[in-house]
Amino acid sequence: MNNRKITYAAGGVVWRDAPRGREVLLILRPKHQDWTLPKGHIEKGESWDVAAQREVKEETGYDTVITSFAGYTAYNVKSKPKVVFYWHMEPSGECEFEPNHEVSHYEWVSALEAVDRLTYEKDKELLRRLVTAED
Predict the structure, then answer these.
(1) Which of 118, 119, 120, 130 has the maximal Cβ count within 10 Å?
(2) Which alpha helices (H) appear in 1-135, and where do they start and end?
(3) For strand 80-92 and strand 7-18, is the pairing parallel, antiparallel, or unpaired?
(4) What is the predicted pLDDT for the residue at 134?
(5) Which CATH architecture has domain 11-134?
């Protein structure tokens, strides 16, 4: 039996209120040329929520406040299972974003625009569920 190691990651669905309504934060990763939600691996001894906030800060420059649990996605990367837990977050303070090799750009977009823009179906499904749950 193949004992495949599961990759655990955590991330944020970061929201803000804007003049045109609520917006969500997406990142563009140049290595993959994909639009996704900020997320990353959990470090040894780190809790899921702390990892999520650290990754959002590293990838977007925003400190955040967690407002609630948002859900999870599960999929395979190179035939290994990966699970990502997401939290609803709000930005706290000013952004200190510097484009880098991991994230070249970020953008605030409406939830509907985000569903169109996101590259991966699992991300789209998560966001659709979150938007539907709020109506």
Answers:
(1) 118
(2) 48-60, 111-117, 121-134
(3) parallel
(4) 61
(5) Alpha-Beta Complex (3.90)
